[in-house]
Amino acid sequence: MSQFLTTVEIKKIGDLHAEGISSKEIVKIFQAKGIRFSEATFRKYVQMGLVERCRRVGQKGKHRGSHGLYPVSTIQRINSIKKMISGDITLEQLRGSYFSMRQKIEEVERIVVSVLGDVRVLAKSKAKSERQDVQLSRDLENLGKNAKRIINSLEKMEGTFFQA
């Protein structure tokens, strides 16, 4: 049986790839560890919803296109999946499990943070007075607190269904 990635190894990878990591790099990391893993398997995990989709990042220069980057948490998730399927659990069983729910909650959190960031930038540019700016800041702070409460509630519900 291959040795899986340790928490320390995953943390080091996270430190090196804070902005995200490509699918090719992820595959190489697992293969270097002696874990059978390919681009096709990676795509299958994404299609099944076990691993989140990448975010597209433009490359500098004219007409250079973009490439996909995955959060480093993807490595932790794949590592966990590989551990679980080395036992008695199938990919189909995992599909409706904790991984799917966790991914959706993380996606909601990322989207909320992104939208709030966009609204903050827009609010700064549209505030016509200092008083209006202060009110917008308060409203944004309340929105952030409400979003955090919703995410915490989802995580609590998740814990009810998938207790470790």
Structural account:
This protein is mainly alpha-helical and 164 residues long. The chain folds into two domains: 7-95, Multidrug-efflux Transporter Regulator, Chain: A, Domain 2 (Orthogonal Bundle); 100-161. The protein has seven helices and two strands, in the order αααββαααα. A two-stranded antiparallel sheet has the order 1-2. A hairpin with a 7-residue loop joins strand 1 (55-58) and strand 2 (66-69). The radius of gyration is 19 Å and the shape is elongated.
In short:
With 164 residues, this protein is mainly α.
Topology:
Blueprint: H1 7-16, H2 23-32, H3 39-48, E1 55-58, E2 66-69, H4 73-85, H5 91-95, H6 98-126, H7 130-161
Antiparallel strand pairs: 1-2
Helix pairs in contact: 6-7
